[in-house]
Amino acid sequence: MLETMPKTVAASTPPMLLARAAMAQVGCEALLVYNSDPHLSEYLPERWKAREWLSGFPASAGIVALTATRAALFVDSRYLVLAEQAMAGRGIEVHLIGPADWSPYITWLEGHLAPGASVLTDGDVLAVAEHRQLDARLTAAGMELCTDADLFADIWHDRPAVPAKAAWLHAPAQAISSVQEKLARLREAMAAQSASHHFISALDDIAWLTNLRGGDIEHNPFFAAHLLVNRESAILFSPERIFDEAATAALQAAGVCVRPYNEAKAALAGLPEGAAILVDPKRITWGFRAAIPTACRIVEGTSPVTLAKRIKCAAEIDLFRQTMIEDGIALCRFQAEFEDGMARGESWSEWRVHERLTAMRARSPHFRGLSFHTSAAFGANAAIPHYGVARETALPIDRDGLLLIDSGGQYVGGTTDVCRVWAIGQPSAAMIGDATLAMRALIALSSAVFPAGYPGPLLDSIARAPLWAEGLNYFHGTGHGVGSYLGVHELPTLLSGRTVEPGMEYLPGIVTSIEPGVYRKGQWGVRHENIAVVIDAGSSEFGSFARFETLTLCPFDRRCLDIGSLARHEIAWLDAYHAEVRNTLAPRLEGRALQWLLDNTAPMKNG
Amino acid sequence: MLETMPKTVAASTPPMLLARAAMAQVGCEALLVYNSDPHLSEYLPERWKAREWLSGFPASAGIVALTATRAALFVDSRYLVLAEQAMAGRGIEVHLIGPADWSPYITWLEGHLAPGASVLTDGDVLAVAEHRQLDARLTAAGMELCTDADLFADIWHDRPAVPAKAAWLHAPAQAISSVQEKLARLREAMAAQSASHHFISALDDIAWLTNLRGGDIEHNPFFAAHLLVNRESAILFSPERIFDEAATAALQAAGVCVRPYNEAKAALAGLPEGAAILVDPKRITWGFRAAIPTACRIVEGTSPVTLAKRIKCAAEIDLFRQTMIEDGIALCRFQAEFEDGMARGESWSEWRVHERLTAMRARSPHFRGLSFHTSAAFGANAAIPHYGVARETALPIDRDGLLLIDSGGQYVGGTTDVCRVWAIGQPSAAMIGDATLAMRALIALSSAVFPAGYPGPLLDSIARAPLWAEGLNYFHGTGHGVGSYLGVHELPTLLSGRTVEPGMEYLPGIVTSIEPGVYRKGQWGVRHENIAVVIDAGSSEFGSFARFETLTLCPFDRRCLDIGSLARHEIAWLDAYHAEVRNTLAPRLEGRALQWLLDNTAPMKNG
Hints:
The structure is a homodimer.
Chain A: H1 7-11, H2 15-26, E1 30-33, H3 50-55, E2 63-67, E3 71-75, H4 80-87, E4 93-96, H5 104-112, E5 118-120, H6 128-140, E6 144-146, H7 152-155, E7 167-169, H8 172-175, H9 179-192, E8 197-200, H10 203-210, E9 212-214, E10 226-230, E11 234-237, H11 245-253, E12 256-259, H12 264-269, E13 276-279, H13 286-290, E14 297-300, H14 304-310, H15 314-343, H16 350-362, E15 367-370, E16 375-378, E17 401-407, E18 409-411, E19 414-415, E20 418-424, H17 429-446, E21 449-451, E22 454-455, H18 460-468, E23 505-506, E24 511-514, E25 517-520, E26 524-527, E27 530-540, E28 543-550, H19 568-585, H20 591-601
Parallel strand pairs in A: 1-5, 3-4, 5-6, 8-13, 11-12, 13-14
Antiparallel strand pairs in A: 1-2, 2-3, 7-9, 8-10, 10-11, 15-18, 16-17, 17-20, 18-19, 21-28, 22-23, 24-27, 25-26, 27-28
């Protein structure tokens, strides 16, 4: 529906002008650009960074709305300052998302467009719930929503292709179940819901189901694909060239055939009459959902793959334990090197911390990369919960205070995510007070018993209560699911939030982070984060109970804790944890790293 | 649409036969009878006990489904045994509601009717959400749902009339705000939602808004009415004769006119085109909602009256405090009399406990009746959370064990609800263990600090954690809102549940019960229940915080507690609570009751 723009004009023209020209050509009055891809990924491949290309704003969240005469960028509070700096002088207004208005871009469109106006957004990267809201509000305002065109297909001339890096077989020793077994279980679940087909766009679900890993997404071992499963076979829509011989053979053995990536939508559109297709409205975009013929029955529900993936079996948990040893060795080696260096008067920056810690992890033969961008945050930087260190802006670690290091690795045996705060010189009493209370929060939840399968959001207040008692709080989740060499944020497993959804049950086998913190804006921040697995805690006439077993193996810096204010059971928990860390890691360390481990895991008893 | 049955036939015919004859006459294959009224009341006036009239089953919950050849009663697990006993030999099957199937009556209809069948239920007593589910499922099964007839209007010949007992002005000294003020606030909230009208069926909302109380409902000082408010005036649909002169004058002064009760639906049907009517889908029945003309705009939302009513102002809370003194005096006097009598070898039954405790409450000039049926439960009866004592079946209190007394009063100044467990002879160590853990749960939540406005369901685990730690739990809510001389269960204020809804915010001014327990089926039960008000707990850079102030004034029986296993802060909480009870009640008691109070509130220190 969009005529191709003459390339000679386009190549040198600013993106906003190109977009407005294209808008005029297709006859829409406004364009809405989300930071999203057809897989609703957390990290976007370059191809779908249209919001960044159009506005120049690089952050991982933010929405642009564009009319013929105005442009606006909408960001949440985390990115407000950054956005105002980046957009200054570019003719793009900056507005805040929430809490006064969670959809200010719709309000903005309502205010700047007349009834009858047409708003274009790419349905292929639009979440179903977002489409529902957008459509309802624009329709109520007498406007029209168009979702069937990707304006950037024609105006973004050097647009990156769909990523097609190599994908490889995640070998059965780590993958535990075969693709055949996983498909059989999926088909049972489909049958229970009377579904003949299931369409999957979520890249972590596809990687898990196919026992394949890839390099298309930063920090996540995923590959770009959609998957259509029916009762007998499955079609993987993905660039064929990315699969090596072993992967191709494994797919064939499981009855999975590979078709070009861009044929997925047509395959949906070609579903036979009477097909009943299961789709997960949170894990499919509007464009793909809308492609399903009306003669098909749509069964909405959380994907059985999403639900199966979150429960790790005993063999997977053993792999996690081995992986935590490798991660723990790297953490100890790094910390010993860092503290020795600081003691010798070396000059360290946040960036060097990131580089050296990454190098220590890379010594493991099973390390495959970081699971997220390291947050090595000194002083006031640690008060920014999502602070990601950058070489150019990294602070020197050159005065008394706290160094917060939140980092994690992708290993063949599992994914890690750990946060500690380290004393630099002499932290203040107030810093130590915050770190101690956050430790009480960590211990409260880490040692809690709860009904097996209890929803994570309903457990959250157990962690927060010790902080609330002192008038403290933190404005991020207490924990998130963690994948087995998959995403470090594996939803729907969540320890926070105000809605309880299917898949949030904390059942034995759930692997989750626990990460309370305290942040003093412009001053300091503390967060203690472990990964834990939910294990059985026995049953009684009141049902089955569960509790957490901490998997992460890394000492806490007790110089940051006011041991005297901890309760006896809290000291006992810390001592037991440190004994476990020591006993597990000591046989695998030597020299300074071993000494550092022994120094930092000795029993405290009563301080 | 239903021809009147000849009365001579009907009067002597069993209700099920009458119903089937009427079903045949109107041409429907099945009848669904809910235990519900047009106000979705907790306690039903006799007029709407059609389920009981039809089936003979008297409990406060349960649904009957009837076809030409089969009949079934559907009850939740609380009533299963009772239902099976009551229905034996009556040709009515009994089925369980949940957890395998929460709508087994729909499944049953699907199984026993053919496509094309018509199912009748009275839309005027059908909750909107229930209608949505019923309609969707029956439509999917190819059946038709009819909701526009009340079959009982014609076949239930001695059916009680709409209740029309006297209603009276709840005088401003207790009512705090005038009806004018409340209507003005409501109209502001309506304007904020662009609503020209608001229709209210909830009897507690109407009683609160009109500052009237009535005697139409057992245990609740409500009167049968609907209310339609527009920008300038309001119409109260209620039997006119029930209002005395003062009430009538007050209504007139506030611009509220009274119309016959049965004109409410017609008034809705007659709303002018373009009217925007606010209705609360949880507090209006399907029949009334469906009466709204399609030319009107329906604004769905929690009623501003429901939201305003739940926040008690300082003067109301002072009235609650005074009321708790009156209730506490009655509780002490009763307990002294009971314990003296037992010591003298008197014969006491659960029923006598109920009678004497009620008599003690009745000595207060402000007492207006019980707020719910007393649960005086000895031994195994206390393991039934909803046990209501009856004269015929009351147990004698004649052996060692625990006596659980859950009771409450309606007073002009407020509504009370208190539960204590009392040692009879020597309770077992296991009983004491349960009572002690439930006490730790009560103290954990009663002393918690939390962000002001935090949703109650998300605070629940703070109470349960101490029980979970020992493999215990209870399967009822931890607390519910309590009205100011209104309902003892005032929703949506709730400390439990898996859905967080508007109106569940625990804000300063919220009055709530806190009532953890432990129940050993067939053995014993413990529950400690206080009423508490949410108060301000100061603010920090992390926001405003709140905590509970306990309002209930009644000692706990420390013979039921293992003081040695309590933590220091728990003993301190109990001692401080008992000091408060003693200091407040002692000046108002004399003789044996005073001595009993002093004996039972002395400091424990370390046991």
